[in-house]
Amino acid sequence: MLKVLSENNKGVVFVTVIMIIMVIMVLAVSIVSVNLNQVIATEEEYKRAQAEILAMGAFRYFHANYVDSASANSLVYLRTIDDVTYTVNSILSASGQLNIVVTY
């Protein structure tokens, strides 16, 4: 009876195939996770770059308005780009420092 059980190797191939499939699935899930994190990071970098460009534009716009009328000490500007609303707040302090805050 023991000789019959020790010569039966039919289940070894099945277990090996299951283990290989599990390893491939773990590798696939890790690759998808890394790619998803890269997409999220790229989207945030894209939004940050747009906010920086809007801030530079707000600086020039505020300067042009300040030269035309010296009484304007603040500027609020709303812009929607790719379904993301950016709010630009520019405030000239009493000491002459211009603060520009962009939120999205």
Total helical elements: 2
The secondary-structure class comes to alpha+beta
Helix content: 55-70%
Query: Residue-averaged pLDDT, rounded?
Result: 86
Helix and strand pattern: HHEEE
Which residues sit in consecutive blocks of at least 5 with pLDDT less than 50? Answer: none
Distance between the termini: 74 Å
Count the beta strands. 3
Description:
The protein has one domain. A 3-stranded antiparallel β-sheet has the order 1-2-3, covered by helices on one side. 62% of the residues lie in helices and 22% in strands. It has 2 helices and 3 strands; from the N terminus they run ααβββ. The longest helix has 59 residues, at 10-68. The protein has helices at 2-6, 10-68, and strands at residues 74-81, 84-92, 98-103. It is rod-shaped, with a radius of gyration of 30 Å. With 104 residues, the protein is of the alpha+beta class.
Properties at a glance:
alpha+beta, 104 residues
Set out the fold topology:
Elements (H helix, E strand, L loop, with lengths): L1 H5 L3 H59 L5 E8 L2 E9 L5 E6 L1
Antiparallel strand pairs: 1-2, 2-3
Question: What's the short story on this structure?
Answer:
It is built from two helices and three strands, in the order ααβββ.
